[in-house]
Amino acid sequence: MRATAPSFRDPAGICFVFDGRVLRFVAAEALPEFERFLQTNFARKFTGEGKLISSRRLDENEIAPLRESHELKSIFDAQKIGAVYEHEKISFASFPHEWPPEMLWAAGKLTLELAQSALADGFCLKDATPGNVLFHDGKPVFIDVLSFEKRDAHDPIWKAHAQFVRTFLLPLLANRRWNLQLNEIFTTRRDGIEPEEIYRLCGALEKFLPQMLSLVSIPTWLSRKADPDNGKIYQPHLLKNAEKAQFILGSLFKRLEKNLNSLKPPASNESAWSGYMDTHSYDDPAFAAKEKFVREALAEFKPERVLDAGANTGHFSALAAQSGATVVAIDLDAACVGATWNRAQKEKLNILPLVVNLARPTPALGWWNSECPSFLDRAAGKFDGVLMLALIHHLLVTERIPLEEILRLAYELTNQLLVIEFIEPQDAMFRRLTRGREALHASLDAAAFEKVCVKYFEIVHSLILAGTQRRMYCLKKRGVN
Amino acid sequence: MLIAYVDPGLGMLIWQTIVAAFVGTIFYMNKTRRWIVASIRSIFGRGEKTESTTTAVTQNPPAEAEIKNDAR
To answer: How many CA atoms lie within 13 A of A163 on its CB side?
Structure first.
């Protein structure tokens, strides 16, 4: 398939990934405003800073072959297209249901900064959802350029305010207060979490905490009392004094920023896995040998794109990023993924950390299951190198995935290199996981592991980590020169 | 069933409107305060300074000036 499903909610235009190119078809009636927006100082400044996705208008010669395409024909037929723009490609798409709270917070900060800054040029954001943001080169980038609309200077209301609260503030609040994970919120809710839902989680006194009052309790009480058929509520409340309208709007953004800042995830979120680097079972020489092995494999194969599966707090993701690769680091533990994000930000490493469990990878979501492709659809064949370090025993024992299946998945994910750590059943951590079911893995040893490996990979190097029951393997995908 | 027809943003929109009305009064209070301060300064012979202050306020984007006042 050469094309992915289009975004279709905004009548002003459609975004479509076609042949690896990100194309935006702008409706004829929305084009003048969109072009005015692109000419503003605001759009130029933020595009230059990499905070707003860059857009290039295609000329007629470039559009003609698109019109001929079978996949794109329906777009041209459905509405009058005024222009087609091509956007810079994002190396790996991710979604809010895969982000740790730290990344949702960063996306919220960017959204608010853009919404505020656009006011000076007479524009405003018409929607405020994390779906408008992707991560590229370790930074959030606002991708939905059609979200900006001309603002009525006399309007003191930001229509996207409730959506900003639902999709940024309340998920962060629920995560901080009740440890509700973002994947639990966003996998089943496209548009965030309602104040009503949070209200039901609150204890009697919690409802009266200042932040709860303004974000949850008062909106809930008001919506219960309001007449939903009263259309007056939705009519614009224009003020005579534009200066006053701008003052009110500025004050709203200041309050939202204050709320967002108060919900910033703490620098050290703890979980069962977040202390792994301090408590793992290797002694110093064994860990140094493992690190050296990975470093040498990266130096030998020079992968440009690396997937670190089971990345924990991103120690080896950082090694890969320091070697010049663009890294996607996945782990099932949101606290670990958040720590990886913090480290990548601090050290300016090109790492995209995502909350993904390789045994239950992110499913395809949305209309026709095609708005948000599954993790494996996005990942298969997209990496030159895959790291699977201290992971295999979790898949074999806890998830009961057969060894051959694990190697087969690794084969699908990488185009060339696989660095994998084999853990013998006699290993202390392996035995801790088996909990008396050792018999299930009685036939597993290094020879059995290698026998499966060679079906899919060539063994380039291997190393027994002295003093452990673990071995490192540097494998090259079969059929690759 | 009825819940399905309730706009999830309705309560938030009403709340935003109420707060906007309140903030609107702060806007006039700030204006009045600035006018009083300017008048007092001119009475006590600091007219030149008053003039320059007024010019500075006028040259700034109005909302920005108000927000700065509000932050104090």
So the answer is: 16
The whole-angstrom distance between residue A340's C-alpha and the CA centroid of its chain comes to 13
Interface of B with A in 2-41 (CB under 8 A): 5-17, 19-20, 23-24, 26-28
Domain boundaries in chain A? 1-89, 91-265, 276-477
What is the distance between the alpha carbons of residues A162 and A159, in angstroms, rounded to a whole number? 7
The residue written with tokens 């709860």 in the block is A212
Q: Which two tokens stand for residue A281?
A: 């079972």
Q: Give backbone dihedrals phi and psi of A341, rounded to 5 degrees, phi first.
A: -60, -45
Q: Nearest Cα to B18, choosing from A280, A266, A214, A412?
A: A214
DSSP 3-state of A267: coil
Of the candidates B10, B16, B63, the beta carbon closest to that of A223 is on: B10
- The answer to whether the Cβ–Cβ distance between B63 and A158 falls below 8 Å is no
- Phi and psi at A182, nearest 5°, equal -65, -35
Task: Report the C-alpha gap between A337 and A102 in whole angstroms.
Answer: 9
Angle A41-48/A101-118 helices, nearest 10 degrees?
A: 150
Cβ distance A468 to A281 under 8 Å? yes
pLDDT in tens, A111-160: 999 999 999 999 999 999 999 999 999 999 999 999 999 999 999 999 99
Q: Could you tell me if A110 and A88 are in contact, meaning their C-beta atoms sit under 8 angstroms apart?
A: no
How many CB atoms are located within 10 Å of the residue A39 CB? 11
List residues bridging with A3 in a β-sheet.
A18
Quick one: A276-477 is in which CATH superfamily?
Vaccinia Virus protein VP39 (3.40.50.150)
Residue A261: CB atoms within 10 Å? 11
Residue in A closest to B63 by C-alpha = A247
Q: Is A205 helix (H, G, I), strand (E, B) or coil?
A: coil
- Residue found by looking up tokens 């991103």 in the block: A314
State the maximum Cα–Cα separation within chain B, in Å, rounded to a whole number. 70
SS (H, E, C) A211-239: HHHHHHHHHHHHHHHCCCCCHHHHCCCCC
* Chain A: closest CA distance from residue B15 (Å): 6
Q: Specify the pTM.
A: 0.89
For this complex, say whether ipTM is above 0.90.
no
Round to whole Å and give the CA distance between A242 and A155. Answer: 8
